[in-house]
Structures are given as structure tokens and as C-alpha cells.
Amino acid sequence: xxxTLAILSVAFVLAGCQSAxxxxxxxxxxxxxxxxxxxxxxxxxxxxxxxDEKTGDLPAGMETLVPQLWQTSLQEAxxxxxIFNDDASNKVNLTVKILKLDIPSFGAGMTTEVAARYxxxxxxxxxxxxxxxxxxxxxxxxxYAFSGVTRVRESINRxxxxxxxxxxxxxxxxxxxxxxxxxxxxxx
Length: 188
Hints:
Blueprint: H1 2-15, E1 40-48, H2 65-81, E2 91-102, E3 110-122, E4 128-140, H3 148-171
Parallel strand pairs: 1-2
Antiparallel strand pairs: 2-3, 3-4
């Protein structure tokens, strides 16, 4: 009996020693796109929404690391997809605004909710080719890991990965010749 109790105690302590996963927004399983967008992606920025733009909680302290990791992971996914035509005469910018990053403070299962606005802009005339607010969740069940920090970090990773994945899927439908908000040309 004492031996079984000792083994269970050691197992319990070692389970609590599990290290938390790194924050990593890299999207798994991104494939090459056979559909191409007739535009070259010239610039991409990822930033935090202003107070009047946000749609939910944006924790303090995320101003540098989260946008930087988001942009790196999005660039990696776009490179794998090769969806933009580097030889195209059309040039576009991609901007991403993080509108919400709602991280759970406690719980057994952890769910992080994220929202971001993606905009593809024509550099020549400023037309908004594509814009969409994308919301996603990252859910991690209670039995994923003993440590709550591990479950929270994994839920953050999954929520952003799911958000980027939804954008990549939507990007397959973009046609630069049909902007969502074309620039109105003034007639003389």
C-alpha cells in the first residue's frame, strides 16, 4: 500500500513538472495552392487594434510578441501556399489588425477566442480588394495536460492557428479584378 501511494505521489509531482509549450502560431499542413491571385504581395503588417476598433479583450503586454509571431506565421503559411503571383503587374498590401485575444484565466478546459481583421489593398489606387473580420477559438480539454499554463498556452496557439487557417481558405476566393470596395473615380 505504501509503495503504491509513493508511486502515485511521484507520478503526480512529475506530471506537474511538464514544461509549457512555446507560443507558436505556425499553421500545420499548409499546402501549395493551384489557384493563384494575380497580384504580388509587396507588404504585410500585423498590429493591435485601437481602443475604438477592438471587439473584445486585448491583454496588456501583448503589443510586440503576439503581432510579431502572428506575422511570421502568416508569412510562412503564405510562402508555403505560393498563392500570390510574384510576376504580376498588380501589387497589394496585406494588413491584419488583432481585434480580440480573450484568454481564459482559469478552468479545467481552456478556450481562447481570437478575432482579426484582414485587408488586402491595391497599392495602385487604394481599393480594398478584400476585407473580413475572422473569429476563431482554440479549445484544449482538461485532460490535455495537468498544468493550467500548458493548457492556456496551447489554446492560444490553436486559436491563432485556426484564425490564420480560415483566412487562407478565404484567400482562395479573392479576385483582384473585383475589389470589395473599389475606389470611386471622379469624373470631370
